[in-house]
């Protein structure tokens, strides 16, 4: 349902991104992880990066909920790190959760932090990003909505604050 490695390469892209939801109670998780592994392998074979956004998830009430705890994210990043025939071109895109040091200690893969939902407390979000950026494998931020729609509508101020975290 998306671009494959050969079409990304033909377009001159540097890689591809995929969402990996892992729900141990959902039989479709096995094929999802397998498909992710094939995509990671194909991208690596073409010399392209794979950006995996892993979540430990559960279904209930007709919706999927991502578990945003250190334990759940640690499980998710370890599964993501093991998919494909190499991790040489694999990066992770992860949300900030409590005890990010535990999460990031579970993998040697480089990671970027995602911004998630727009927080009512941007100062707390910025401090969480600052702490995560201090971890050795965290390389940057991918935080669109949190900067485009800050609670005070000061986009320039939110961007300036995010830039100051580096």
Concise overview:
This protein is an alpha/beta fold. It is built from 7 helices and 6 strands. Helix 2 links the parallel strand 1 and strand 2.
Polypeptide structure, described:
Strands 1, 2, 3, 4, 5 and 6 form a six-stranded mixed sheet that branches. The mean pLDDT is 93. The chain has helices at residues 5-11, 28-45, 70-81, 100-105, 122-133, 144-148, 155-164; strands at 15-22, 49-60, 63-66, 90-95, 111-114, 138-142. It has 166 residues and is of the alpha/beta class. It contains seven helices and six strands. Strand 5 (111-114), helix 5 (122-133) and strand 6 form a beta-alpha-beta unit. The radius of gyration is 16 Å and the shape is globular.
> SSE order, as H and E?
HEHEEHEHEHEHH
Low-confidence stretches: none
Major sheet size, sense and barrel closure: 6 strands, mixed
Structural class: alpha/beta
Residues in helix, %? 40-55%
The total strand number stands at 6
Shape: globular
Q: Helical segment tally?
A: 7
Strand content: 15-25%
Query: Termini distance?
Result: 36 Å
Mean pLDDT: 93
Radius of gyration: 16 Å
Topology:
Layout: H1 5-11, E1 15-22, H2 28-45, E2 49-60, E3 63-66, H3 70-81, E4 90-95, H4 100-105, E5 111-114, H5 122-133, E6 138-142, H6 144-148, H7 155-164
Parallel strand pairs: 1-2, 2-4, 4-5, 5-6
Antiparallel strand pairs: 2-3
Core attributes:
166 residues; alpha/beta; 23% strand
């Amino acid at each position: 349902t998306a671009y494959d490695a050969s079409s990304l390469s033909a377009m001159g892209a540097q890689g591809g991104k995929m969402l990996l939801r892992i729900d141990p109670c959902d039989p479709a998780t096995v094929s999802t992880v397998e498909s992710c592994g094939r995509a990671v392998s194909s991208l690596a074979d073409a010399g392209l990066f794979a950006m995996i956004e892993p979540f430990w998830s559960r279904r209930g009430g007709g919706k999927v909920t991502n578990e945003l705890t250190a334990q759940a994210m640690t499980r998710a990043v370890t599964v993501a790190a093991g998919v494909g025939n190499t991790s040489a071109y694999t990066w992770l895109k992860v949300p900030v959760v409590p005890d990010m040091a535990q999460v990031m200690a579970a993998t040697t893969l480089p990671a970027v932090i995602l911004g998630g939902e727009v927080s009512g407390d941007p100062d707390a979000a910025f401090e969480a990003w600052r702490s995560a950026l201090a971890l050795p494998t965290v390389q940057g931020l991918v935080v669109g909505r949190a900067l485009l729609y800050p609670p005070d509508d000061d986009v320039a101020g939110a961007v300036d604050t995010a830039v100051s975290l580096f």
